[in-house]
Amino acid sequence: MRKTIRWMLGTPLVLASALACGAGFDCGKAATLVEKAICASPKVSALDGQLGDAFRAALTNHPGKSGALKLDQFHWLADRDAAIADFLRDNPGKPLAASVGQYQARIDFLRGLDAKAPKPLDAVQGGLVRLPAGSYDVLADLGKVGLPITVATDVSLDDATAFPYEPDARLSKALGERDASSGYRKLSGAPVSSLFSVGGTAHCWTETPFRIDGKKAIAVNAPDAWDGDCMTMHGMARVGDDVIATVLTNPSADEMSLEVSRWDGSKFGPDAQLTLRFDHALSPMGSACAPKQSPCDDFATTAMASVARYDRSPVPGTLDRSLKGPAKAAYDATVAAARAPKGIAPEGDTNSYPDLPTFGTSIADGEMTGYGPEATFFPIDFRGETLLGFIGHGHVGWRINDDWLVSAWRLKGGKLEPVASAYVAVKRGALLLSSVGLSSPGRHTPSRT
């Protein structure tokens, strides 16, 4: 079974409610845990008001983009709510820090809709109408659809003697320190290149760019965007007649940032940034039920309904509902067993969360199938039974992806028994908006991948 759900604008009532949370709201009417936390922090509350002003200004200044703005605000609010919920879980009793939720970045993005991109980023932004849906490599994909963009090739360098230029002292030192993941960039006719290494669990880059003078390679200073950079993709490209150093950051299915620094003939100039915001779609990749390899398309349908709701507000309580009588007693007992010291998610222990039960099937090969500390329980009805549902993102250590894992357990003979599982992919969709901004040196850090 494979079904994709693409987000569309909801009813006027739902839309107004969602947008009100991001446009400043009456703290006297704060109802959710997130709203109360925002109101309890003067700094975050002030930022929320500034965000509301920026959003209203964007709607006024870009009436042709109102649909994209409102849909994108839905996605941003979901990310904000999840970030605040994570902070509250990890910092009980503490007020929200001003950085939680990335308010300032969102305000800057909305204001950047009115900014003009510098050369040659203006050519990239002007060609975005041709960007294919689901793009994760904006420059390469724009080049494929006919824009005057050529992306450099990364050439592996296993042996220093294979380096095609005569290195100066600084490059000689870098060549001596290269590792198994080293290489250099090849861009036909370009006057500049770079020797690089990338590795470690955080996929961190070390770059030594150089100017090409005949057969000689002369080291030059790296652009700021290449400073202390991890969990990104470095590169070089030609846009028209300009050669640029690039950093591509993909923090989520909803967002991509492209930073570029233009080569002026002797050095790399100031960094410029283009942030792209996308729609996304939910697509079930697989499901499984006990016993081993049992067909389970009906659980995929049930899980998709839960994910569709939770994706809009991924915080504890979103999927809760009132249970009564024996159903409530049975569910409460199952939660207690799950939270017990030897349960699947022990109370207060954020390091002992389970993997997605797969019952011997291949639900999502190569993907992250371990639950993390943000995962939450909820009652889920399946085949006439109210079970203990569990929903969260996939994890491997500190790495987190955007996809959703959903499982169900029952309490049988005092022990938890896995019943069903589903893996739901979050896929990047069409481009919604792009915004110009200035980058900050060394700002890249490991994030959800």
List keywords for this structure.
alpha+beta; 10-stranded antiparallel beta sheet; disordered N terminus; 32% strand; single chain; 6-stranded mixed beta sheet; 3 domains; 449 residues; 28% helix
Describe what this molecule looks like in 3D.
The protein is an alpha+beta fold. The protein folds into three domains: 5-112, no CATH class; 121-279 and 430-437, no CATH class; 281-427, no CATH class. It has ten helices and 16 strands. Strands 1, 2, 9, 10, 11, 12, 13, 14, 15 and 16 form a ten-stranded antiparallel β-sheet that branches. α1 (12-22) packs across α4 and α3 runs parallel beside α5. The longest helix has 25 residues, at 66-90. It is globular. Mean pLDDT is 90; it is low at 1-23 and 439-449.
Indicate the percent of residues in helices.
25-40%
Series of H and E elements: EHHHHHHHEEEHEEEEEEEEHHEEEE
Bulk shape? globular
Measured by DSSP, the beta-strand proportion falls in 25-35%
**How is the main sheet built?**
10 strands, antiparallel
Number of structural units classed as domains:
3
Q: Between the first and last Cα atoms, what is the distance in angstroms?
A: 26 Å
Unreliable spans = 1-23, 439-449
Roughly what is the average pLDDT, rounded to an integer?
90
How many β strands by DSSP? Answer: 16
What does this entry show, briefly?
With 449 residues, the protein is of the alpha+beta class. The protein has 3 domains: 108 residues, no CATH class; 167 residues, no CATH class; 147 residues, no CATH class. Helix content is 28%, strand content 32%.
